[in-house]
Specification:
Order of helices and strands: HEEH
Largest sheet: 2 strands, antiparallel
Strand order of the largest sheet: 1-2
Helix content: 10-25%
Number of helices: 2
Number of strands: 2
Oligomer: single chain
Mean pLDDT: 84
Shape: globular
Length: 71
């Protein structure tokens, strides 16, 4: 099952800013969160954080850059 395809999201924020992912059930919020926190790896394509491919980052690198709260 393909969950996300051909998606380009750019979030430009400053340290300390709050970004919210909101939307109806089933649109991919949890999938996106799992990908940007490296809890899941993409089957294809790339995810970049600060212009660096996340595939080159460790889970610990990402923990220093991203915080999140679930519902």
């Amino acid at each position: 099952v393909v969950v996300m395809r051909c998606i380009k999201i750019i979030i430009k924020n400053q340290a300390g800013d709050v970004v919210a992912l909101v939307g109806p059930s089933g649109v991919g919020k949890s999938t996106l969160l799992n990908l940007i926190t490296k809890l899941s790896d993409p089957k294809s394509g790339n995810i970049f954080l600060d212009d660096m491919p996340m595939s080159l980052m460790t889970f610990q690198d990402i923990q220093h850059k991203i915080s999140y709260v679930t519902q």
